[in-house]
UniProtKB/TrEMBL annotation:
Presence of the UniProt keyword Transmembrane in the record: yes
GO BP terms in the entry: phosphoenolpyruvate-dependent sugar phosphotransferase system
Transmembrane region(s): 22-44, 64-84, 141-163
GO cellular component labels: membrane
Source organism of this protein record: [Bacillus] enclensis
Cross-referenced PANTHER family: PTS SYSTEM GLUCITOL/SORBITOL-SPECIFIC EIIC COMPONENT, PTS SYSTEM GLUCITOL_SORBITOL-SPECIFIC EIIC COMPONENT
Source organism, top-level taxon: Bacteria
The protein's name in its UniProt record: PTS system, glucitol/sorbitol-specific IIC component
Keyword annotations: Membrane, Transmembrane, Transmembrane helix
Pfam entry (one): EII-GUT
Record carries keyword Magnesium: no
InterPro entries listed in its UniProt record: PTS_IID_sorb (IPR004699)
Amino acid sequence: MDFLVMIAEGFIGMFQKGGETFMGLLTGIIPTLICLITAVNAIIKMVGEERINRLAQKSTKNIILRYTLFPVLAVFFLTNPMAYTFGKFLPEKQKPAFYDSAVSFVHPITGLFPHANPAELFVYMGIAAGITELGLSLGPLAIRFFIVGIIVILIRGVVTEFLTVRMMKSKGMDTTNNNSMSA
């Protein structure tokens, strides 16, 4: 009989934990995201979508900048998970690669700029604790994470764009489409 009670308590406990997580999101990140989305959309409306679109297209013509500078700026200024919205300024064929680059950079940036992804800070701090225990400085570690992160996002962006274009062509899709505002 105790076994059935344990199963029932575990079952309902799972949903209680889910409810706690949901409430944490409702009182934590969701209001922040709504405010951030509103602010970014207001800035886009004030500056003008066409101007921002042209600036994004000019700054992402170079494949190296597209998969290094653009995701770094997105993650630094908009933080995780809002950074991915920068992809709306890119042509369809580049959106998956931008997302891959940006999502791959949310951890390497935390050593130098913890505001960009505070949820991942525990990973960096765990590694940092070991480095500190050895009597070593954290600065070089943070800089190396950052530099290696940029190299990795460039490689991932280039490879993902290549694969995306190849898959689009195999499906007969237009890869010259420059419609960068469609979501």
